[in-house]
Design brief:
Blueprint: E1 23-31, E2 34-43, E3 49-54, E4 59-63, E5 65-69, E6 73-78, E7 83-90, E8 93-100, E9 103-112, E10 131-140, E11 143-152, E12 158-164, E13 175-176, E14 179-180, H1 181-191, E15 195-199, H2 216-231, E16 236-244, H3 246-257, E17 261-267, H4 274-288, H5 293-312, H6 316-333, H7 336-345, H8 348-362, H9 365-372, H10 376-379, E18 386-391, H11 399-412, E19 418-423, H12 438-443, H13 450-466
Parallel strand pairs: 12-15, 12-16, 16-17, 17-18, 18-19
Antiparallel strand pairs: 1-2, 1-9, 2-3, 3-4, 5-6, 6-7, 7-8, 8-9, 10-11, 11-15, 13-14
Helix pairs in contact: 2-3, 4-5, 5-6, 6-8
Length: about 475
Amino acid sequence: MLKRALVAFCLSLQTAYSADIAGHWSSDLEFGPIKIQVTVFLEQEPSLQGWFYCPEQGIYELPLDELSFDGDHLQFRLNNLDVAFQGDLRENQIDGHFTQSKIPFKLTFKPTDEKPAPIRRPQEPIGPFPYQIEEVAYRGPDGILSGTLTLPDSAGPHPAIILIAAAGPNDRDETLLGHKTFLVLADHLTRQGLAVLRFDKRGVKESEGDYHNATSFDFADDVLAGVDFLKTRSDIASIGLVGHSEGGLIAPIVASRSPDIAYIVMMAAPAVPGEEIIYEQLAYCEKLQGYSDALISADQELSHQLFAIVKQESDLLQAETKMRETIRSFLASLPAALKKELNDRYGEEAYWLHSEAGISQVKSPWFRSFLTYDPAEALRKVTVPVLALNGTLDFQVTTAQNLPAIAEALLEAGNPDVTIVPLPQHNHLFQTCVTGDFQEYGQLEETLSPTTLETITTWVLDRVQKD
């Protein structure tokens, strides 16, 4: 979520305030199973100013925009992150609402003596680097795309890889919870003699374009623009694709459209329609959180009803109204025991905040496309070599649901070179893990497991050497 670059300036408000709000204030931002600590540090003298911290996102001391405090009411923004907070100081805590991309969350800041410390990420590469690093920009279908091209120091032309990021407004490093997955992967691959292009998604950081109204097919067009850019360079030979999560769904789309793709690597790639992915994901996630089987079943039925509205209703305002009505009916019809379980977990206000967040998401063009698209359509047209990996503890895109579907679709394509690799004790980010739960993502020091890095590298080098 908190991934966009912030213009570093701070607006100071010259106003009178009597309450003491100076110091560090911390809270846990919860979105479903995800819990992220956010902290603000406020100073009142000589003027009001503040800074934002989110260590799990690698964010430290970002100045707060449009900060004001009148003795009771605090508000601030982080403009380039599309973040806003409004709250009231009561009994030594600040109760309010935090919004990210217009998705609301209830948040309570409490004073803390601890300044957030950077989280250790030992795999993050530090220069000097034994390869060339070139900042590049090229035209995409919706504006200029910006990225980084790393090139071996040896004489070219070099086999190249384009990295395709997961869902969300990802930057070129696929920064998530303090991990820079693509930075680590690009560094490893380039040290092995491969050129690597990674880029900010359209509308993210230094890339132009409209992210919020784009679908997976638009992102595929952006990858094709990267292919065209690499083809103009004399220091680049063959071009392969490595896609993570949604990027793994996009890679076959690109390969089915372009004769210039030599191979693809699919990391935790969806291989069945998005609706099926979400049902599996929700059930797995709720089991990890200790939901009763009855509540999981009820929630699945609610999801079926909501997705039916999304698929059938083209008018977004009508769809929004119908979804709210469906949720109200769901809550009213719940047996008393399940209603109590739901309230114990959320509370009515928090449940509605989560519901509003979900409604906001499902109205997006990306979600409506993802819900119904069947990745097998593109996979059945892919005849270049394919490596598909999944972690056995990945509950976002599960091994059991997706690896067999990839193998089946590629068999129908008559693809002669398919490698399917389930990785034991690996999660959706390809970290060595214990449970696979969201909470582990940011807590683990490991960004990408050595097994993942070696599996991809060995397989790719074997294919480019054959060429």
